[in-house]
Amino acid sequence: MLILRTCHQLNALASISSNNRLVAPAKNAYKSIINTRPMATTVGAKDVKGAIEINGLTYPTDDWTNVTPKILSYLGANKHLQRNHPLSIIRQRIVSYFYSAYRNSRGNPLFSVYDQLSPIVTVEQNFDNLLFPGDHVSRAKADCYYINRNHLLRAHTTAHQSDLISCGLDNFMVAGEVYRRDEIDSTHYPVFHQLDAVRLVTKDTLFGRNLDLEIFEKDWQFHVQNHSPPQTSSKCLDETKQACHTLEAVKLMEHEMKNILVGLARDLFGTQLEYRWVDTYFPFTQPSWELEILYKGKWLEVLGCGIMRHEILQRSGAHNQIGYAFGLGLERLAMVLFDIPDIRLFWSNDSGFLNQFSEENLHKLPKYKPVSGYPQCTNDLSFWLPTGVEVDAGFACNDFYDLVRSVAGDVVEQISLVDRFKHPKTGKSSVCFRIVYRHMERTLTQAEANQVHKRIADACAETFQVQIR
Ligand code: DAH
């Protein structure tokens, strides 16, 4: 989940001010390798001098720009909407579960679905509206793809929550791709897909005929009348509920939400499912939980959820409602449900992969059969960093991973930092990355891997001013 960052990411945060200089030269270095993936037909992105043009709109670049042409080439790919694609099948399973779980008095689905919202959002949408503190680690340049200081590629589909509530919606789902800078391995990809949902209720819907029950504490209403605009402090976050809500309102919402979400997990994984709720923290919900399921003997986190922070509802005009929200990752679910071993496969256009899945019967989820185990090629890349530069102090590994993605694309299966060394005399730092190459659809020869490796080394030397060893 977005907010639970590893130490590695915290370290990366420490280096944001020092890695600015890596951004500008990177643009030139990428020139030779733009369009390693064909541009999606519905979206056009152009690198104009001092600006990026996406779909006819021009965004000025600045010292926060770190989005690469390679990453922009994923815009409009819409894997979650592609016919017979495993991500689309999982999305449809979740949507149809919600359609049948919640119906209005005429028998129609209560939830509406938004699955084609633009992934270009403002910092306000992605963070501020969701009450992320100004210094929250998730905002780091090392972790997000920024177009400029004001715009980024959404890091979660929760970014649309407050706008949709402002539009007057009470029950809705948002599905789409999200973008995060991360390491490279079989479960991480810079673009992946999420589905978020919100349900808001009024006092009448929540308590029915129990007219003496209230959603809000009386004292709190007094407090709000006397303090507008609403307070945004996160003081109440250690408590089991927000100060404004009554215990009965929160408990009833929690019960409904957990019931529905366990129902969803059972629908996907079978009724025998073993699960547990784990308390957690999100800036936009309080209380918050993660649902974990026991899968092949290990606890696996499948979603995050909670009671929505009332400040968000208030600012979006839903003053008298209480809501729950949740968000989940489609790749994680699809990998488990179809037994898909590598996240890159979701981007494969190989018919051997795609023909294994069909949305004809959403309740039949076949296990993926590897087309063939193509061999891996492993090459190490060692280089001296410029004087005074070290990992996380002037050199961010995520910048290196992005460069590798831009140069080599999906033939890189994994990268790991295998060695760090500081020369006792010169004081210069050296790093060694192990890069594992494997083609998803055919055998990659060692000679081909060497060629790609050489291109990475050249781009790396030029972009980061390092000396290849
Ligand atoms: N946005 C969170 C993430 O990407 C997931 C999430 C958690 C979404 C709780 C929600 C929620 O709507 O209520 O990690």
Describe this structure as you would to a colleague.
The protein is of the alpha+beta class. Helices cover 28% and strands 24% of the residues. It is built from 14 helices and 18 strands. It has helices at residues 7-14, 23-29, 69-72, 86-101, 123-126, 161-166, 203-207, 218-226, 247-269, 310-315, 330-338, 351-354, 397-408, 446-464; strands at 45-48, 51-54, 57-60, 112-114, 120-122, 151-153, 171-179, 191-201, 275-282, 285-295, 298-308, 322-329, 377-384, 390-391, 394-395, 412-422, 429-437, 467-468. Strands 4-7-8-12-11-10-9 form a seven-stranded mixed sheet. A hairpin with a 2-residue loop joins strand 9 and strand 10. Helix 4 (86-101) crosses helix 9 (247-269), helix 4 packs across helix 11 and helix 13 crosses helix 14. Mean pLDDT is 87; it is low at 2-42 and 227-238. It binds 3,4-dihydroxyphenylalanine. 3,4-dihydroxyphenylalanine (DAH) is lined by residues 1-3, 156, 158, 196, 282, 285, 304-306, 325-327. 3,4-dihydroxyphenylalanine binds next to strand 11 and strand 12.
Question: What's this entry about, in short?
Answer:
The protein is an alpha+beta fold and 469 residues long. The chain has helices at 7-14, 23-29, 69-72, 86-101, 123-126, 161-166, 203-207, 218-226, 247-269, 310-315, 330-338, 351-354, 397-408, 446-464; strands at residues 45-48, 51-54, 57-60, 112-114, 120-122, 151-153, 171-179, 191-201, 275-282, 285-295, 298-308, 322-329, 377-384, 390-391, 394-395, 412-422, 429-437, 467-468. The radius of gyration is 24 Å and the shape is globular.
